[in-house]
Amino acid sequence: MYFKKIAFAVIFLSAAAFSLAQTKTTVKSPNKNIELNFWLNDKGAPMYSVSYKSREVLLPSAMGFELKQTMSNEALPALKDNLVVTSSTQTSSNTKWKPVWGDVKEISDNYSQLKVSLSQKGDKAISFNIIFKVFDDGVGFRYEFPEQKNLAHFIVSEEKTEFHLAGDHKAFWIPGDFDSNEFNPNVTKLSEVNGEDPKYAANIFAHQFFDKDAVQTPLMLKTNDGLYINIHEAALVNYPAMNLHIDKSNFNLSSVLVPDALGNKAYLQAPAKTPWRTIIISDKATDMLASHTILNLNDPSVIKDPSWIKPTKYVGVWWEMHVGKATWDYAGSQNATSFDAAGLKPTGKHGANTANVKRYIDFAAKHGFAGVLVEGWNTGWEDWFGQYKENVFDFVTPYPDFDVKGLHKYAASKNVKLIMHHETSASVTNYERQMDTAYRFMKANGYDAVKTGYVGHIIPRGEHHDGQWMVNHYVRVAQKTASYKIMLDAHEPVRPTGLSRTYPNWLACEAARGMEFNAWSEGNRPNHDVILPFTRFMGGPMDYTPGIFQLDLSYWDKNKKETIHTTLAKQLALYVTICSPLQMAADLPESYEKKMDAFQFIKDVAVDWDDSKYLEAEPGEYITVARKAKGSNNWFVGAITNENSRNADVNLDFLDAGKKYTAIIYADAADADYQKNPAAYIISKQVVDSKSVLNLKLAPGGGCAVSIMPVK
């Protein structure tokens, strides 16, 4: 949903052909805090720089491309020097728009713009444009290739965009893998980045490291003098994702595009445009969390009537497989002696059986959850995981113990929706062939949301999860599901870049290390949850699956001595600090039934918001957020910390003046500790108003959740 408030333009420069060598064009943000300069150097190379409140953010940084002919694979003249500026136009715009869902009900889109048209010299010259948008909290720029006689179909062999940083900043990073984002983030100086560290190779979902000095975006940085910088991209469509190579001699970051099997980066046809490269900047960490620049750089929604899109809180048959209580597959070992009517040998532990799913439906209906996810319902799980296995799943054939029709009727009678699961095993060509059939099957059986998965090596062979071919696939799925009025939750995809604005049925992605790693690996570090909002979440919501109450894993498996690296109160707080329209209560019903007083917060908390106040934050350290529920006067507060205990003082001045509220505080107990006593919590209640200040004590690895509702 989009509406225009104010828009105006002023043309400053326009000429048939002239050079701006050594002459800078300056664009400032509306509040004048950010300044961008563009110029051609004495070699005719395009350059730009960025400053914030007169502090250097990006030193002179190069731009451009190396291209090839599509048919002959021969190099075209490089678009990185010997260029002239043919025109330069500055405009400005100030509009507002309403997202279908999100952290606020209205977003301001206010920027100053510079469009520069560049060309080579000679009869075979190639022309292209660079568009800069300068917002109050950052900069976005993209390249455009207009239709022209000397450039029709072409290959991008390299993009030469640079981000020349002013120093050896503190970095929050994961290595530049082309297929997985599921790493524990590291916190080091840029000069200490090392993607060849053995701990990264231990990630079973990682596939290949191409550059030990490369990192993925979003890359979060902090300077020695307290400036926060985030580098990412927006509107990633028909183009590969961008990683960043670090030149440790001068901290110049250069774009690394994910290649295909031939080493090519992108196949384009003019007119064409790249994603936006984004630099979010502030001297306040809370401003980074509040930024909507990446969303603003995406196109408005293509869905004219989004009334069928429903932010959802759900439960599901999922965690019990990760902790070993149940299995995804139905058939047992070859030594089994009993067969069912289908000739299969049941394990007796298959989670997605009709009776068990009904149990989850009953639990959801009783406690007000709209959806139930079921994984492992369809045939193929016995032989799905491995390298390059095609045609494993057909997405319409259930196991013998899963009654599709009966469960459809049962869920409908309880006013609950089942959520479909499509694990593709990365055989994407198979899924492309099956999508229409699968989505028709979903609609016929009452499913209006799907969770997709892409575990494994991509088929077609040689493609990567983050390459152009797969980027286009994810968009096709968003478009196709929208045509069926199906909501989408993509797992193992490319990291999001704000496309949820264009396709608001694309509720969430994974594209990061989620909760399941706590069940069968070294787990997620206590600082993971206070880094993700500054990195992965910059591009869009994650289906993180919080809400684990049974934190001692030996309860499920006596051979496991670990506890999950979080307190129970922090698990509650994640429903607020993680802003997502898709939130799972991920534990088993029996875990919640033992602690119904704490479970009440999960029942109460919203998943869609009218307002958000980012009260305090520091990457890797702590976050405190307050959010107002959509169409309600109810507020919810979440505060989380890393492995260190701390106090969070929450000023409630965001509440309506003169009104009384009841605050229910779900806090770490005095002796709570993520290692020693993670499940210890206390619940208290008090009357508050806009003059109140809550003092919240957070245990090591802990957090606090607060519901604030008007006194009736």
Explain what you see:
This protein has twelve helices and 38 strands. It is α+β, with helices and mostly antiparallel strands. The chain has two domains: 2-296, Beta-galactosidase, Chain A, domain 5; 313-567 and 577-601, TIM Barrel (Alpha-Beta Barrel). Helix 5 runs parallel beside helix 6 (404-413) and helix 7 runs parallel beside helix 8. Mean pLDDT is 93; it is low at 1-21 and 333-339.
Question: From the coordinates shown, what is the CATH architecture of the largest domain?
Answer: Distorted Sandwich
Number of domains: 2
Question: Helix segment count?
Answer: 12
Structural Rg: 26 Å
CATH fold title of the largest domain: Beta-galactosidase, Chain A, domain 5
Could you say which structural class the secondary elements and strand pairing correspond to? alpha+beta
Largest sheet entry: 12 strands, antiparallel
Class of the largest domain in CATH? Mainly Beta
> Mean pLDDT, nearest integer?
93
N-to-C terminal Cα separation, in Å?
34 Å
Number of strands: 38
Shape: globular
Strand percentage lies at: 25-35%
Fraction of helical residues: 10-25%
Poorly predicted runs are 1-21, 333-339
